[in-house]
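Request: Not sure, any thoughts?
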Amino acid sequence: QVQLVESGGGLVQPGGSLRLSCAASGSGSIFGRYAMGWYRQAPGKQRELVATITSIGTTNYADSVKGRFTVSGDNAKNTVYLQMDSLKPEDTAVYYCNGLHLLTRTWYWGQGTQVTVSS
């Protein structure tokens, strides 16, 4: 089974940028076998979908992040990224990487990385 490890979170001022990484290991290449996504959960709120990238590279975004966030993947590094620009205080949350195995329909989650947008 795949292990997902997020990194890149931190404290950033409004209008700033961060790039989150999700490194996959333990199950070969995720590309072509998993649909990958980024979710986030703010204090007191439900976990919500932020962005997804399919096995063929199709991307989809929540309305709240369209035009500001970009999801991408690097096959050689077996890693998925979330580039976050023009960050707002309401983007503050724990961000989780998710992988859906396309054959078994099993979901895998990383441990999460904290993103705080504050002046």
Remarks:
- The CA atoms of residues 52 and 60 lie 5 Å apart.
